[in-house]
Amino acid sequence: MTDEKVEETIKEVPLVEEMKTSYMTYAMSVIVSRALPDVRDGLKPSQRRILVAMKDLNLGPRAKHRKCAKIAGDTSGNYHPHGEQVIYPTLVRLAQDFVMRYPLVDGQGNFGTVDGDPPAAMRYTEARMTRAAVLMLEDLDRKTVDFVPNYDETRREPVILPAKIPNLLVNGSSGIAVGMATSIPPHNMGEVCDAIIMMIDNPDVTLDELMSVIQGPDFPTGGIICGREGIRDAYATGKGLVTLRARIEREENKKGRVSLVVKEIPYQLNRTKLIEKIAELVKSGKIPEISDIRDESDRHGARLVIQIRKGEDDDIVLNRLFKETPLQETFGVNMIALVEGRPRLLALKQIFSHFIAHRAEVIRRRTQYLLEEAEARAHILDGLRIALSDIDEVVRIIKTSHDTAQAAGALIDRFRLSQVQADAILRMSLGKLTGLEQEKLEKEYHELLARIKEYKGILADKTLVMDIIKEDLFDLKEEFSAPRCTEITEEVQAFQVEDLIAEEDMAVTLSHEGYVKRQPMAVWRRQKRGGKGITGASMKKGDFIEQLYVASTYDTLLFFTDRGRLHSLKVHEVPKLSRQSRGRSLQNLLRLPADHFVTSVIPVRDFDDRYVLMVSEKGIVKKTVLSAFQNIRRSGIIAVSVNRTDRLVGAVLTSGDKRVLLGTRKGMALQFQETDVRPMGRTARGVRGIALQPGDEVVGLCVALEGNSVLTVCENGYGKRTAFEAYRVQKRGGKGIINIRTGARNGDVVAVMAVEDGDDLLAVTAQGMMVRMPVNAISVIGRATQGVRLVSLNEGDRLNSLARVVDVEV
């Protein structure tokens, strides 16, 4: 070739344009020829070609299994020239009953497991088609679908399969193309057939009506679908998110040990990787409640035993497993399939419409094929009947003819036959001349006429075509229908933190310098009055436990600062530390201004119509409805406006109509009706509650309830219980009456609270000692007395705070 000719064959193309064109060509090749299924038969080209190759080998359900290497080789050599190592994994997937709801291949040998074990090499495994695959190929040889030349034009292959089964939905499909992916879940055959029949009967059927029969995906591995909203979205738009959970049962052995037994896992979940994930979480301390994991699965099904440590809450462990492991997964439905060679996102009704249209076309083409076949046979029989009606003349013509061609011509001229009829007469044996054979011939002829009439009726009436489709679907339902594998339940809410922790009572302590921690109430043992207690914290020099509160891990702690601001924290968010630990700084947990100190904490479960009653050192009281504090910013909100010279010292929950008692440091008390204080907004200052003497200040308040008594405790460890009735009810704003005699023996009052028989108390000293005692051990005595010793203090120590414990078993 000369240089001039070479130059003529060179065409200059911009690199960007060439890249665009080449990539689009590649992308469409992947989309159409590899990754996406056809909406009509639900198969990708590789899957379709495997089934056609197996049909060529006559590998029906009753045939002997053949080596998968032979099947893969024939598929590669005849239809799919991409190598046997690419074809075999596709063949394996068609045989896996944990992937396909209705497998199309019957495998013999190791075809892999749900644990992720790979299949054996194709030279060791064998396969044949299942009954479902046969139905996918049924009528393929009756011109029901178009054929095209294969890759080397040595034979022809079908563009699509007749697909008597609605395979796209019953077996689902998944694939990743260029710029798109499909993820169609499998469904129950009986439900899909019923839904298609419903749509045939009423093309305008609503989605809700369809969903009354097709409940949702039906995964071969079972599991539980939580909620129907994602299913409806997928059916309505083609896209949706389905929450899928494992089926887990609770078992308890004779020793009382509880185990969670996983019997069904989410679709396409690798069981081995699941076990590894759970073991990793246990090892890292995220789920320490699990003591052992055993895989007891066998050929009858999955059985993964997760043993719970004794005394742990199995519901909490179960929630953590759902939260942290693939035992709960989200299956993304993305129903993309090829429609006339183009990818389209399809809703449920669209998939049904395309399947119905495909089956109608298959039935029409099959009927046309059968009609032509019957008419051709009837034409021959018509000629034979003519010949038999004058057999002597036919014999004479044949005997006098020089050869077959002359005999055929003579017969055509004499009886006005066609060439086909004449040839058939010449091939007719003498046995056909018997009366019985003539009778059979006549019977066959009339049966053919009846079938021809039937075929023509089908081709002329769309309703008859739809009836045939429905009849096929009824047959499919009868043959393949089985109970659902996957259960559908009500929707589950997103996990709250409380779902992942056990509910238990906690002692929450707050030190003078703002260190907070929580500890289970079980670490404190009940002691007799006057006991020394146990070490509750290892305090740094100059710090001491100032407040202690008892609350559930599900409760919210409302932190009221001395400047009247309110912050909140869930109890389970408070660090759980040892008894000897001093705790964590509130500055690291709350956004507290540097000059604010927490003076009161209220644990609440619900923000209802109760009230928060607050009191300041100067005796100012304020009542605000609890619901006003429901939405608390991370930086806090204003609970009460406090003067610069004043500070908030206490806050309690009230019903709004009780009696309230204020106690002062110098031993005075005032009881008044709560209704004397009107409800106010969050930013209000409040009203005077008690008139204080110079140098005195309020140290506590309590609400009078039936069966309660007033407990007053002084810093030197002395205290007393007094009935509320011993304090006369006064008007708000008065000076009050004597509550306890203060002096050198008792010291100033450190706490005033309402208690009742059956309560437990936790007394905290400045040096960090804690004493737990029952209220019953403290006698009820008069109002203006000095009290009795409650706590034996070490030299230099003093009682700092007191908390009530309600209904805690020790």
Helices and strands, with pairings:
Blueprint: H1 3-9, H2 15-35, H3 45-56, E1 66-67, H4 68-78, H5 84-95, E2 105-108, E3 126-129, H6 131-137, E4 147-149, E5 156-158, H7 167-170, E6 173-176, E7 181-184, H8 189-201, H9 207-211, E8 224-226, H10 229-237, E9 239-245, E10 247-252, E11 258-264, H11 271-284, E12 290-295, E13 304-308, H12 314-324, E14 328-334, E15 336-339, E16 342-345, H13 348-389, H14 391-400, H15 404-415, H16 419-427, H17 435-460, H18 462-480, E17 487-489, E18 505-511, E19 515-520, E20 534-535, E21 545-552, E22 556-561, E23 565-570, E24 584-585, H19 586-589, E25 598-604, E26 611-616, E27 620-625, E28 637-638, E29 648-654, E30 659-664, E31 668-673, E32 687-688, E33 698-704, E34 708-714, E35 718-723, E36 737-738, E37 749-756, E38 760-765, E39 769-774, E40 788-789, E41 799-805
Parallel strand pairs: 8-17
Antiparallel strand pairs: 1-3, 2-3, 4-5, 6-7, 8-9, 9-14, 10-11, 11-13, 12-13, 15-16, 18-19, 18-21, 19-24, 20-39, 22-23, 22-25, 23-28, 26-27, 26-29, 27-32, 30-31, 30-33, 31-36, 34-35, 34-37, 35-40, 38-39, 38-41
Helix pairs in contact: 3-4, 4-5, 8-13, 8-18, 13-16, 13-17, 13-18, 14-15, 15-16, 17-18
Task: Pick out its properties.
single chain; 810 residues; alpha+beta; Gyrase A, domain 2; Topoisomerase, domain 3; Neuraminidase; four-stranded mixed sheet; four-stranded antiparallel sheet; 19 helices; 41 strands; 31% helix; elongated; disordered C terminus
